[in-house]
Write a structure and sequence with these properties.
Blueprint (H helix, E strand, L loop, with lengths): L2 H17 L17 E5 L3 H8 L4 E8 L7 E8 L5 E6 H12 L8 H35 L10 H29 L6 E8 L5 E7 L1 H6 L9 E8 L2 E9 L3 H12 L3 H15 L3 E3 L1 H4 L4 H16 L14
Antiparallel strand pairs: 1-4, 2-3, 5-8, 6-7, 6-9, 7-8
The structure holds zinc ion (ZN).
Zinc ion binds next to helix 3.
């Protein structure tokens, strides 16, 4: 084996090992907590996942990391206690924080409930970003220590790749602090929400967020403005909850309006494309997914993958309807 190939193989092995490690840090906002984290659900378990699961399984987009090929995904069955969970809260703080939305039915006039649903999405996303920054940093350090490259002579693309997720995680941490402050002061109305109820059975659930301005302009901007995006079933209806910081409302409202002002089948189609374009943290009911044709699954998979590298790619295809 040539020396380069040996170094590449060692590096790949480091990356795979690092990615399989959990990042355990309780993100409880009131004090520094060092307790072990649990697999906390980012989508409500006893009401929402319960309604969607079949034999305790749900369908999720599962990313397969293969460093030798293009990114790959499959829509696979995932166990309910693994689906959409993150190790960002200890058991005590997870239940303390989210009790109001875990034990009560969703009530769209309750500001605390709407805040907590959005907060849960923010915590999961921050946890994911910190983990990827840590993974990249660790892999970089270990590979430099192993002499795979000279850390004093970094080539620029690698340096960018190693630092961007860290800067990203710091920006995220600052964004999450807005939510921490609101939680700590019970000032829930500082978050603006648009909530719509559609009288239609909901076969999926989403807990995510996206920055539509950055995605469309495609440039790095100093302050990211996120729409926190939740979709979930409540009995026989579909609930859409779009949330943003009050200060960001003016800039984000036009993007939210596109979804809110649509109606009927087109609204659900628009929602489907928004989910596939911006979100990875969503589950689909297996009973519903199993009705999809192979042609439909391929169309969904291709659109999902294409928008990973080119976020503004667009075309119309009725196969992208997830409802
Ligand atoms: Zn804790």
């Amino acid at each position: 084996m040539s020396k380069d190939k040996k170094v590449m193989n060692e590096l790949k092995s480091l990356i795979y090992t690092q990615l399989s490690k959990k990042y355990n840090k309780c993100l409880w906002p009131k004090s520094d907590c060092t307790k072990d984290c649990i697999n906390a659900h980012s989508i409500q378990n006893s009401q929402i996942l319960d309604q969607l699961a079949s034999n305790n399984h749900l369908i999720m987009a599962v990313h397969r990391l293969n460093l030798d090929t293009e990114p790959e995904i499959e829509f696979n069955e995932v166990g309910r206690n693994k689906a959409t969970t993150f190790t960002g809260l200890c058991g005590e703080h997870d239940s303390q924080l989210f009790r109001p939305i875990d034990v009560n039915q969703f009530d769209s006039s309750n500001e605390e409930q709407k805040f907590l649903i959005a907060y849960r999405s923010v915590l999961r996303e921050l946890h994911t970003r910190i983990k990827s920054a840590r993974d990249l940093q660790t892999t970089y350090q270990k590979s430099a220590e192993a002499g795979m490259w000279d850390s004093k002579n970094m080539d620029e693309p690698f340096w960018k790749a190693a630092t961007r997720p860290i800067i990203n995680a710091i920006n995220w941490y600052q964004y999450k602090q807005n939510y921490d402050n609101i939680y700590n002061s019970n000032s829930f109305t500082e978050i603006e929400h648009e909530c719509i109820r559609i009288e239609r059975n909901c076969p999926l659930a989403v807990s995510s967020l996206f920055d539509p301005i950055k995605s469309i302009i495609g440039v790095e901007i100093p302050e990211q403005k996120f729409i926190v995006f939740n979709v979930f079933p409540q009995k026989k209806d579909t609930i859409i909850l779009l949330s943003y910081l009050g200060d960001h409302q003016k800039d984000l409202r036009p993007y939210a309006d596109e979804i809110i002002n649509a109606s009927g089948e087109y609204q659900l189609y628009l929602l489907s494309k928004t989910i596939l374009r911006y979100c990875e943290n969503f589950v689909i009911s297996p009973d519903h997914f199993n009705l999809f044709s192979q042609q439909k699954i391929d169309a969904i998979k291709n659109f999902y993958l294409a928008t990973v590298t080119q976020i503004d790619i667009d075309h119309n295809d009725k196969n992208l309807m997830l409802f």
